[in-house]
């Protein structure tokens, strides 16, 4: 029972955020349980109350557009505050870019660019740019593999995930095999003292994990 109540600290701090933003720093010391399902992408929401209802296709499109716009707003806000010299207690962009480059070597953040038609732009009116060593592109142009990993990295940084249990379903989702294997090797570096529970059907992933750390569910068949 004591262990159960240790996981309630985050919810209590979350309720205090509305009146005191400085308590966010406490997240780094508080355990939690987080999960990232196989439907994750730049537009997916980890909050069930924000998910759309009604026509499924329209809902997914609206949810995706809204989710990307919201993510871009947060990233742009961090970048613009950084450029303005606003002192922040925590450098979110630095840590997010470090993790992004760790999983996708050679890739980095490339600043922001004003969208056409905005003379007095807000944080909503900038492209957030990435560079892969040969081209520069906005986050909405990320590959499927990048989109499956970036929300996880972003949430790790934004929520200061540490001392927690993290479930990632289909950890190799949309990733080329070398990138998937690199992700597995780098996951222990993400956050202090996290316990990761990963699911996969890929032997390429299980090949780089100790057999003592693998639990095979009965039924089904391996693929890839």
Automatic annotation (TrEMBL):
UniProt GO molecular function: ATP binding; ATP hydrolysis activity
Highest taxon of source: Bacteria
Domain (ATPase AAA-type core) ranges: 92-206
Protein name stated in the entry: AAA ATPase
